[in-house]
Amino acid sequence: MKYASEILHLMRPYPGRQFRMAQLVRDAVGGRELTARQSEAVRKGVRRVLEHLIESGQVERVGGETRSATYVWRGLGHEDSQNAGLLGHSTGQYPQHNCAYRF
Q1: What is the mean pLDDT of each run of 10 residues along the chain (103 residues)?
Q2: Residue 75 Rama label (left phi>0; alpha psi -120 to 50; beta)
Q3: How far apart are CA 50 and CA 72, in angstroms?
Q4: What are the φ and ψ backbone dihedral angles of 59, each rounded to 5 degrees?
Q5: HSE (CB half, 13 Å, CA atoms) of 16?
Q6: Pick from 55, 56, 40, 50: which is nearest to 70 by CA?
Q7: What gap in Å lies between CA 88 and CA 80, rounded to an integer?
Q8: Among the residues of 1-103, which ranges form H helices?
Q9: 50: buried, middle or exposed (CB in 10 Å: 19+, 13-18, 0-12)?
Q10: The pTM is what?
Q11: Rounded-to-integer distance, Cα 31 and Cα 5, Å
């Protein structure tokens, strides 16, 4: 996939943020000015990447199949931070003074 890394670098750090196709295309080409033909080719490449990400469950299309659809990075279970505050906080999980060795 030609534009996969550009799409991932743009969307992954912002889970839940909606991106329009125009934003994704602009970022994929680095902001260069394109002819109409070049722009359509890039748009098709970006759409292919998005379709694969939608199929894998990492991206969600908001707004259906219309031209006004936006795309949202959903992330996977291990990337979400909703449970991060619970890690390592259960009572008695670690013995007291676990950093110091006693001889």
Answers
A1: 91 94 93 93 95 94 84 70 44 49 47
A2: left
A3: 10
A4: -125, 145
A5: 4
A6: 50
A7: 16
A8: 4-11, 21-28, 36-56
A9: buried
A10: 0.69
A11: 16
